[in-house]
Write a structure and sequence with these properties.
2 copies of one chain form a homodimer. By secondary structure, chain A is mainly α. The first copy, chain A, contains 9 helices and no strands. In chain A, helix 1 (6-29) crosses helix 2. The first copy, chain A, starts with 5 loop residues before the first helix and ends in a 23-residue tail after the last helix. Chain A binds chain B through residues 28-33, 109, 112-117, 157, 160-161, 163-169, 171-172, 174-175, 178, 186-187, 190, 193-194, 196-198, 200-201, and chain B through 28-33, 109, 112-117, 157, 160-161, 163-169, 171-172, 174-175, 178, 186-187, 190, 193-194, 196-198, 200-201, 222-224. The structure holds a DNA duplex (18 and 18 nucleotides).
Chain lengths: 224, 224
DNA sequence: GTCTATAGCCTGATAGAC
DNA sequence: GTCTATCAGGCTATAGAC
């Protein structure tokens, strides 16, 4: 359903407009300060008309959460795409995600914190978040397989520790330097040290297939 | 001024009551959902009466921020008090702070995040936060002096990295497991690993006065 | 899909009586 | 320091005309 008839195309455009305005309103008035009346005002319609597109304020939050999570996931994957597999891909992905987070602070707060009591994202809206975690786990497993990290990095504890590092970096930067860029931020610019810490905590095991640092444990790598 | 006449004592008590109720309201309705009317309702007075104690809603936030920061600092120092100086004191302090954070989530959000657009804590309210940072820096310097950590740990970068670790642990736990305790939380229970990571990143230098681990062998210095 | 009208709340803040 | 009265709005949401 919802094929590309002109009517439905127009409807989609309006929904996208509403979402973009809602993000602006959150940027101005805080995530919790999102109001349907203000969105309607900026869109040039009356508040009741919004109910043709979203059945309630919480439904709007849910859609914002779902779309934000989805966009973050895409940016994350896009960041990984250009880099070598394993740790380099993961680092590139986190950096791309960090730039997006600094450019989309209201959405990031909605995704990473819990600023709206009474709002629980629906399972559907939460799906990209689960995919995100899998993505990280997969990249950590790649890194372990490639001998860039020890095997523990891809276990539950490793994934949790990694998420703490990333969340801490984003949180501190958003709270204490929201106007600084990812590259220059007092906290986000420490990303390389953060990754170094993680690597030191899960160092590659001795005999692993480390194609990235072949000089370390000089072994003739058998050609396959 | 403000000596202990009966009148002023009573006034202080009322102010304390208002602050306690305000914290409850934030716990129920979110940090941004704090309303003077609701506070008045729960206190059993009419909203205008509140203005005898606080000149505005933002002033109430400022006082909540100042008191919260102060209490957190006291808990932090109290946690350090019982432990050996240096790293053990720092670890005990962070753990005490973490337990307090889980028990005072609304206040923690006000202190660590920026949920209220338009609210900037006054310099006065911010003072304990500065003292807090000094406290951490001092403890890291102690740890370096005692040979528990390398000297870089107490430099600006080390303090920032440490704050990222702590903020990440708190943030992830508050956002993803607010009902779990500090000891059992999926993220906060990883505190020992977090500290281990930090120590690995700033390992004690060779000839330092390491009274705590005199047996330890040389470690490679962090890559950089 | 837009509107008007309205219900039924809510808010922060001030003036001024007591 | 408490109150009433009031200003001057704000909000989500629904009913129903067009």
């Amino acid at each position: 359903m919802a094929l590309g008839t002109r009517r439905e195309l127009r409807r989609r455009e309006t929904v996208e407009e509403i979402l973009a305005i809602a993000i602006d309103v959150m940027a101005d008035d805080g995530v919790a300060g999102l109001s349907l009346s203000e969105v309607a005002r900026r869109l040039g319609i009356k508040p009741p008309s919004l109910y043709k597109y979203f059945p309630s304020r919480l439904a709007l939050y849910d859609r914002l959460f779902a779309d934000g999570q989805q966009r973050y996931l895409e940016v994350f994957r896009g960041g990984a795409a250009g880099a070598d597999p394993g740790l380099p891909a993961l680092i590139a992905a986190v950096e791309a995600g960090g730039r997006w987070a600094m450019d989309n602070q209201a959405l990031t707060q909605l995704l990473f914190w819990r600023p709206i009591p009474g709002f629980e994202p629906s399972a559907e809206a939460f799906a990209p978040s689960v995919a995100m975690l899998d993505e990280v786990r997969r990249m950590l497993a790649d890194a372990a397989r490639l001998g860039q990290l020890g095997p523990g990095a891809a276990a539950e504890e490793g994934v949790a520790l990694f998420s703490i590092l990333v969340a801490g970096m984003f949180s501190q930067q958003l709270a204490n330097g929201p106007h600084e860029s990812f590259a220059d931020g007092r906290f986000t610019r420490l990303a390389p040290q953060i990754f170094a810490m993680f690597r030191q905590h899960y160092p590659p095991t001795e005999g692993s297939d480390d194609r990235r640092h072949p000089h370390r444990a000089a072994q003739p790598s058998p050609s396959r």
